[in-house]
Each structure stands twice: as C-alpha cells, then as structure tokens.
Amino acid sequence: MSATGVPGLAAAVVHRGQVLYSKGFGVRDITTGAPVDRATVFRVASVSKPLSATVVAGLVGRRLIRWSDPISRHLPAFALSDPYVTDHVSYADLFSHSSGLPEHAGDLLEDLGYEQDYILHALRLEELDPFRATYGYGNFGLTAAAVAAADAAGTDWATAADQVLFGRIGMSASSFRYSDFVARANRAAMHVQIDGNWYQKFDRDADAEAPAGGASSTVVDLAKWMILRLAGGRWLGQPVIDADALLETDTPRSVSAPPGTSAGRAGFYGLGADLGYDYSGRARLSHSGAFAQGAATNYTLLPDQDLGIVVLTNGMPLGIPESITAYFLDLVVGGAIENDWFALYSDLFAQLYVNHSVLADKKPPAYPKPAERNAFYTGTYRNDYYGTIHVVSRGGHLHVLMPPRPTDYPLRHWDGDLFAFYPVGENAVGISAATFEPGPGHHRAARLILEYYDKTHLGTFTRS
Questions:
Q1: What are phi and psi of 132, to 5 degrees?
Q2: Residue 400 to residues 108, 191, 378, Cα–Cα distance (Å)
Q3: Spatial contact of 90 and 70, defined as CB atoms under 8 Å apart
Q4: Phi/psi zone of residue 106: left (φ > 0), alpha (ψ -120 to 50 degrees), beta?
Q5: Where are the alpha helices (DSSP H) in 231-277?
Q6: What is the rounded distance in angstroms from the CA atom of residue 353 to the CA atom of residue 319?
Q7: What's the pLDDT band for 295 if we cut at 50, 70, 90?
Q8: Which domains does the chain have, with CATH numbers?
Q9: Cis bond upstream, residue 404 (ω within 30)
Q10: What's the whole-number mean pLDDT along residues 38-50?
Q11: Do 277 and 283 form a contact (C-beta atoms < 8 A)?
C-alpha cells in the first residue's frame, strides 16, 4: 500500500476450515477518510464469476439443470448468430467462455447504459468464433447462462444466489444487487489513479452483468465461501452444494493462456474460474476482478493444502491483489518469494490502459483538409446493435448523441471527414476516431464509423 498509495484493502486467509486471518487497511473512501475493516463491503467485480458458478452448481445438484444442458431450454429468447450454436450452447460453454462469442461481447452496450435484456438480445448480432474451439473471455455470455439457471429455479438471479449460497452459509453482507451494496453503511468507494494521485470519481451499477461482475461482499463472507469450496460444497459438516456438480467447475474446459514457450505452463479456465498448476505441480484455482473505474480483487485456492486467500481493494487494477496472493503463496509453497510479482503484474495490467486508436499519441495535422459544412454531417444514423444515434450541431460544433441516455460526444475536427472524440465508460482509454463517409454525389454523409465502437465490426452507422 505504501508503494502504490491504493486507498483501501482487505484480506483474509483460510486453512483447514478455519479463518486464520482477516483484516482491513487504509480507507474505504478518500473523501471521508472512513477506515476499511474486515466487514467493509467491496465490489468484487469478476470474482462474481466463481461465486455464480457455485450457485449454478447448487442448482445442478438439485437436478434443476445440468451443466451440459442447452440454456435455450430455460431462456428460449436467447439466440446467437449461428442457429446450431443457439440450439446447443450450454451452461458449461458459457461459463467456460467457449461459446464462440468474442471477448467482452456486450460490454460497450453496458457502458452506454443499456439494460440486461437489450444486451442479451444484441448478442445475436456478434460474429462468432469457432464453437467450443476458442476461448473468448466475456461477461454477458456467462450472464445469460446464470439468468437461464435462475429461470429454471423459478426466480431471478440475485434471489437464487441468496437462497442457494449466501443465505445457506451466513454470507449476510453479500449480494448481486447494486441496491443492496449502496444500502451498506460500511462500503468501499471506487478510486482511480491519475498522475500518481488517487481520486474518487466514479460509481458503478453493474446489475446488467450481475452474475459476471455485479456481486459485492466482504473478506469475512468470502472466507466462508472459500471454506465451502475447499470442503467440496460442505459447510459445518453439512452438504450445501453438490460435490460432483462443484467438482465440474474445477475441470479445465478451455486453454485461456497458451504457454509462451515449450517449457512454459498453460493456463486453463474451468467453469467461472482460472485453473493452473504452479512450479510445485500443485493445482491452483483463482480469479481476478477488475473495474478500471476503481476496484481490483483476487482470490486463490490451493486445494491440496486446504488453503485459500482473498484480497479486495478499492483502487483501479494495477496488479495489487494478484501480487499479494502470489507473494503469499510463494512463501507457503517454497518458503521464499520467487519473483518481484508486483513488477510483473504492473507490466501486465498496464496493457489494460493502452489506447490502440489510430489517433493515439498523434497530433492533428498542421494543415488539415477542411471539413464540409456541418449540415453535411448532421442527421440520424443507426445500426441494429447500438440503435439510433444523432449527429447534431451545437454552437457551431458537431456532437454525436449515443443512446440510450443519450451520451454526448463532442467531435473535434482532425482532417477532412475525420474527427476525434473521447469515449466514456468502464472500457474507455482515451481518444478515438469518428469517420464520416460521403454518399452518392457527395451531397451529405451516408455513414459514420465510430472506431471505439467498431471493435467487433459493429461500429458502422448508416444514415436513415
């Protein structure tokens, strides 16, 4: 914490069914100075995924569904671009990110403010990679599977989690509802680092992707969950989650990280969790969570030692929780720290903030080609994925209004029909390009390509 200045952190360690350690450090909000303690509720981001896998394993154990069942049986409106995949994609496919959906499909729709139903419906427009042959990490495929599982149980997702997991083992501060999080007095705000200083600038309602990233919890509650996981679904000696259904979540399903060399170790993904083997040959189960707007989390289990550690922070992802768990497990397994883990993770997480725009790190041309008159560009444009957008002129300047709120993007002229804008939201990393294409006769623009929203070739809007 002294090295990074991250405002707040909490950690817990469990071993052989006991909580050996749980403690909070720093402050939960730099604007108030309120301290973090072991009962502070954090957004856990993608650590939601293994929690959700545990809940679904509970429903599998109750014979309501099977991991191999197609989700269309309980979510008949769900569809993907390939009818065969639509009919066959299973809970296991979506929880292992092997459905063929591209990485982070639907995330930009969530950033704009679209709700869950709209985003899940829009997934049918995504071009698929080979089914069950590729790994594409994302939030909304897994969310679709969790929603289908809850439907099989005759309830909504957050209630299913309460009934199957949280309520059964006393995780009383845990929830998949944003409203529950904001109702907690002892909750951690999110923080971002700008030029070496930390600020509280953002909030995040992640209900749209709740099963994949919307859970909130404490290290005390997550310690209970780790004990349950390490005990094969048992709590205080009593079965809570079916052991066989839970074991399926720990089986490698996808190669998530191919080895960099022939001597390297591959990383795998099971159902909602990363699976790997360390230098001692021991299996490790883990997952990180990250909100670029201010949360970073990690848990790691070492099943053969009946050992687990969880670290929650209220700062943007810089590799802090991953480094702590790595240092800890080095000491446990080898008796000494093997690597400068924070340096390694810092380099890895820095890639999250690299802007790949054609305009990144560039200056506007000294003598740009002039733009057309504003009326050439203004009008209504649409596509099926993002919906209808409006290009308007305000005070002589062009703006793009993106649905559903709308989000207002001022356009800055760059060169000819090329403009620059600055996307906002969880996934935004800086400047991006907006390119107008003229129609027949060059009387007005016919299309607008928004580079930032074109990551899966869905960012072209046609004038209507």
A1: 60, 15
A2: 16, 28, 9
A3: yes
A4: left
A5: 243-249
A6: 13
A7: very high
A8: 8-64+153-353 (3.40.710.10), 374-463 (2.40.128.600)
A9: yes
A10: 98
A11: yes
